[in-house]
Specification:
Layout lengths: L19 E2 L5 E2 L13 E5 L3 H12 L3 E6 L7 H4 L3 E3 L9 H17 L2 H4 L3 E2 L1 E8 L6 H6 L14 E8 L4 E3 L2 H16 L2 E4 L2 E7 L2 E7 L4 E3 L2 E4 L9 H4 L4 E13 L8 E8 L10 E4 L5 E10 L12 H14 L8 E14 L5 E4 L6 E5 L5 H18 L13 H8 L1
Helix pairs in contact: 1-6, 1-9, 3-9
GO molecular function: oxidoreductase activity
Protein name: FAD dependent oxidoreductase domain-containing protein
Keywords: Oxidoreductase
């Protein structure tokens, strides 16, 4: 078996183990070891994105022997190319509300435990809704057209109007998603013994309807008491799931810019209503300055086929050019020449057929679990998904979040009607 401990671009973190306390005062407790503790439960987690890594982290922290299986590299797909935006209450009123709130609070606790501001760019944000019309070229018009509770930050000097605060530093925040995922895995590997195997999971090995491990494409078998499939849009390639639910992919584009004067860019996330110069339907791109001095801009999303290899996902040039025009319209600091284009990229977000995450044990297969379908909220909802799945696998039920709404059996019930 090839065991790989990832080489990360920052030192390993050594902090005292502590409880993770939610604002609701509920606790996710760490099991204590004793002389009569049975052999740890062996769990194979398939998928090295944020969902799989969060599950591996909480499982291993609570005593499981975890093997993380990843086809390519850690956070190589959406978890490495997402915006990393976090919101406490933006999912309120919907099925994901409790998951999002619990996860936002866990992000706060993890940032304290893992030195998040320095390790992976965790910080609170003020978030604004802004209207931008590309055809208006005068930056001075932005000031005269402003309405709402306060002015735009000075770096937003393009044709913007109608600014509105939609998130405060107590309700919205950000992380660098790739660094967050790798920091969490580094902690799990170095302190809780998670093993990382690079290989393509081919099938779940079963015996009398019960999971016994995972077989890789090269024939290696990872023996496990439980298997967790957290492969994002690639989860659908497992035939045992195809008859239960459908996962499809949304391809989203993004660019990362490095302004010449990064200190001028304040921590304000922008959610835009953007009217292109040529007319047509308005777009809804998003702008996230990062504490690294970079500015991340995303948008231009559409349903797309999922390639076999995450490394095969390439951006559409027209979509990248549209995002560059968005950047130039928002700020003179983000015009090419004033800002270097560091990255042009695309990723595929996993979406379920009812747009609700799928989290739970696979019907009819004891010991086989799935966690996918988080759409654009995967980075936000990773920690609570991980904590809840660890409880479900180790204790038989989750207490941190009620998972019944996310159970894959809901699709079986719907198809019988």
């Amino acid at each position: 078996m090839l065991l790989l401990t990832p080489s990360l671009p920052f030192p390993s973190i050594s902090v005292p183990t502590k409880f993770l306390r939610l604002k609701s005062s509920s606790l996710f407790l760490i099991r204590s070891s004793s002389m009569d503790t049975p052999q740890p439960k062996k769990v194979a987690v398939c998928g090295g994105g944020v969902i799989g890594v969060c599950i591996a982290y909480f499982l291993s922290k609570n005593g499981a022997a975890v093997t993380l299986i990843e086809q390519s590299s850690i956070a190589c797909a959406a978890s490495g190319r997402a915006g990393g935006f976090l919101a406490l209450d933006w999912c309120d009123g919907g099925p994901v509300a409790s998951l999002a709130r619990a996860s936002f609070n866990l992000h706060c606790s993890l940032a304290e435990e893992l030195n998040g501001p320095q390790s992976y760019g965790y910080r609170p944000l003020t978030t604004l809704s802004v209207s931008v019309t590309e055809s208006s070229l005068s930056s001075s018009s932005s000031a005269s057209n402003q309405t709402g509770p306060g002015p735009l930050p000075s770096w937003v000097d393009g044709p913007a109007k109608s600014p509105r605060t939609i998130g405060s530093t107590s309700s919205t925040a950000q992380v660098h998603p790739q660094l967050f995922t790798k920091t969490l895995l580094s902690k799990a590997v170095n302190e809780y013994g998670v093993e990382v195997v690079i290989g393509k999971a081919e099938r779940v090995e079963l015996a009398e309807g019960k999971t016994r491990g995972v077989v890789l494409e090269d024939g290696r078998e990872i023996v496990a008491d439980a298997v967790l499939l957290a492969l994002g849009p690639w989860t659908k390639r497992f035939s045992l799931l195809g008859s239960i639910f459908t996962i499809y992919g949304i391809k989203a584009h993004s660019i990362v810019l490095k302004p010449k004067e990064p200190d001028r860019i304040t921590p304000h996330a922008l959610f835009l209503t953007y009217y292109p110069a040529q007319g047509g339907k308005p777009m809804d791109p998003e702008v996230y300055p990062r504490p690294t001095g970079e500015v991340y801009i995303c948008g231009m999303s559409a349903q797309a086929e999922v390639p076999d290899d995450p490394e095969q996902i390439t951006p559409v040039p027209e979509s990248i050019n549209a995002l560059k025009r968005v950047a130039a319209s928002v700020s003179s600091h983000l015009v090419e020449g004033e800002a270097a284009v560091k990255t042009e990229q695309a990723c595929i977000l996993p979406c379920s057929e009812d747009d609700v995450p799928i989290i739970g044990e696979v019907p009819g297969i004891k010991g086989c679990y799935v966690a996918t379908g988080h759409s654009c909220w995967g980075i936000l909802n990773g920690p609570a998904t991980g904590a809840a799945m660890a409880e479900l696998i180790l204790d038989g039920h989750a207490s941190i979040v009620d998972l019944s709404r996310f159970n894959p059996t809901r699709f079986s019930s719907a198809r019988k009607k």
